Amino acid sequence: MKENVETFMAFDKDFNDANIIYFGAPYDGTVSFRPGTRFAPEAIRRDSYGLETYSPYFRLDLEKDTAVFDAGDLLLPIGNREKTLELIYGFTKRILRHKKIPFMVGGEHLISLSSIKAVFEAYKDLHIIHFDAHADLRDTYMGESLSHATVLRRIWEVVGDNRIHQLGIRSGLKEEFMFSRNHCSIELYRMDSIEDLVEELGSKPVYITFDLDILEPGLFSGTGTPEPGGVTFREVIEAFKSMISLNIIGVDVVELSPNYDQSGVSTLYACKIIRELVLAMNS
User: Fold this and answer.
1) In this structure, are residues 156 and 137 in contact, taking their beta carbons and an 8 Å threshold?
2) How many CA atoms lie within 13 A of 65 on its CB side?
3) Under CATH, what is the fold of the domain 15-281?
4) Which helix (H) or strand (E) element contains residue 267?
5) Whose CA is closest to 89, among 77, 69, 100, 74?
6) What is the pLDDT of residues 108-146, one digit of tens each?
7) Domain ranges across the chain
8) What's the CA angle centered on 263, arms 258 and 264, to 5 degrees?
């Protein structure tokens, strides 16, 4: 792999020296309301330079305290969902073969399925922490089984019962909430259970899938399916602080749709969440 021409700030370490491989998956082919997440990886890289590399929350610096390689964006075929998922799966497998951590930025939430499939094949005791406004547990959506509205149901079919832990959920069908209570774990509206969850998981391998629409849309409007009643950035930081002992072996951050927030603030939220999550992983 070669370094991307335009990198996320400080994600410019040599591939061989890096422990985290950052890459974009600009796909939004199943978005049901407001498309545009395909533009997120480029916007995030560009706007990341509006932030400092140092985080006062973790007292760490991306330049000095992390080793991240930005591999650029995958070239995904427009209109071909299955091929897109195959390419994401194959790229994640390449990263794992080098004993490194994949950090994928979307794009819509369906892309998580491929990355988690690849990680699960390497870590059979995998658990998923799912930050989101939406349960994403429908069996089908508009007759389709592969959708950003069904992605966690498809992931459950991969990892099985009691491996998916949902936080901040405040939207979904009644059947989705019932399914989660029977097959996953779910905390509605908040993330207060994160400390107990971290203690429960111990050293087990964990994949973080972070849908940015968990944030209150009054603060973060740049997403395809905004849902009132969300969490604040400060609450996210406190959750990340609780997670520093986790054995995180894969991450994705999805569902920024930058063109719905012309102020650019939503993109900066995404940039800062990526910065803090990487630093939490290196704490």
Assistant:
1) yes
2) 17
3) Arginase; Chain A (3.40.800)
4) helix 265-281
5) 74
6) 999 999 999 999 999 999 999 999 999 999 999 998 999
7) 15-281
8) 45
